[in-house]
TrEMBL record:
One of its GO terms (biological process) is phospholipid biosynthetic process. This is Glycerol-3-phosphate dehydrogenase. It comes from Candidatus Uhrbacteria bacterium RIFCSPHIGHO2_12_FULL_60_25. The keyword Lipid metabolism applies. The active site is at K169. GO terms for molecular function: NAD binding; oxidoreductase activity, acting on the CH-OH group of donors, NAD or NADP as acceptor. SUPFAM superfamilies: 6-phosphogluconate dehydrogenase C-terminal domain-like, NAD(P)-binding Rossmann-fold domains. Residues 40-136 form the Glycerol-3-phosphate dehydrogenase NAD-dependent N-terminal domain.
Length: 298
């Protein structure tokens, strides 16, 4: 009997994941609050209740609402998979802690995080991701869904580190968009990636009980490089817009998460000079060229 998979959210990444999962022979249902995206969708309670695996393909600021909407209809053993990366502004909870709070106690769930540009997956190019979950069985279920695709998966039990890496790579991808727009060159890009990786590792280590390893994996460095230099990335585009002087109209995950990240770090945020440089440009509306030149000078 085929695995029944439901995807909540029919945006770019939801559509890309649906196409990949389809290769496994799974029976797929899709649902979106915008019915024009899935015109033939069944009612939410029906598609949730029938799911063996349920993907939440929504922005981080919509994650709690999405999770709350599925809870009344979830089977106890349904595997819930989130692709969101962010920090809830009201609670400062990262994605895995938000799901622990919102889902029924004991509900199996996982995070997927890594270089997975939807536009590249759509044309058959490879992707890679960390599947962060405490249970090996949950990872195995997810891995089977992607076994015939070019999406390379690895298992991690470090859920908090993985969630933090996803937040940080989005925030710092804005800085790489700025570096590109300022035409600082390839040498500068390499140096900035090194600086970013060091800061990400230090921040994750501080917020993750001394373990900063996630910064160096697919959810951290891997995704940073993919999104930090890609025109497909909204975080990259925000960085470029900040240099051009165009108003930032896109709600990128990094742009939204930055104030909550700064609050999570408290007074220790001043230990991370590049993060503070991004803060001065994004939050304080300082001139990007002047601030980044000041950072380079040290």
């Amino acid at each position: 009997m085929p695995t029944r998979v439901t995807l909540i959210g029919a945006g770019e990444i939801g559509s890309a994941v649906a196409a990949l999962v389809k290769t496994s022979g799974a029976k797929i249902e899709r649902w979106d609050k915008d019915v024009t995206k899935v015109p033939d969708q069944r009612a939410l309670d029906e598609v949730v209740a029938s799911a063996d695996v349920l993907f939440l393909c929504v922005n981080s600021w919509n994650l709690r609402a999405a999770a709350s909407s599925i809870v009344p209809h979830l089977k106890r053993n349904t595997v819930v998979v989130s692709l969101s990366k962010g920090i809830e502004a009201a609670t400062l909870l990262t994605v895995e802690r938000l799901l622990e709070d919102a889902l029924p106690k004991g509900q199996p769930f996982a995070l997927i995080s890594g270089p997975m540009l939807a536009e590249e997956l759509d044309v058959g190019l490879m992707g890679a991701a960390v599947v962060a979950t405490k249970q090996r069985r949950t990872f195995n279920v997810i891995q089977l869904l992607f076994a015939k695709t070019k999406l390379r998966l690895e298992h991690s039990t470090d859920m908090h580190g993985t969630a933090l890496a996803g937040v940080l790579k989005n925030v710092y991808a804005i800085s790489l968009g700025i570096v590109s727009a300022l035409e600082m060159g390839g040498n500068a890009k390499g140096w900035f990636v090194q600086q970013i990786t060091a800061e990400m590792a230090a921040i994750i280590k501080k917020l993750n009980r001394g373990n900063g390893d996630a910064a160096y994996g697919a959810a951290g460095l891997g995704d940073l490089v993919a999104t930090g230099f890609s025109s497909y990335s909204s975080n990259y585009r925000v960085g470029r817009d900040l240099v051009s002087g165009r108003p930032v109209t896109a709600q990128s995950e990094g742009f939204v998460a930055l104030p909550s990240l700064l609050r999570s770090l408290g007074s220790s945020k001043t230990r991370y000079p590049l993060l503070m440089t991004v803060k001065r440009v994004v939050v304080d509306k300082k001139n990007a060229k002047k601030e980044f030149e000041r950072f380079v000078r040290g």
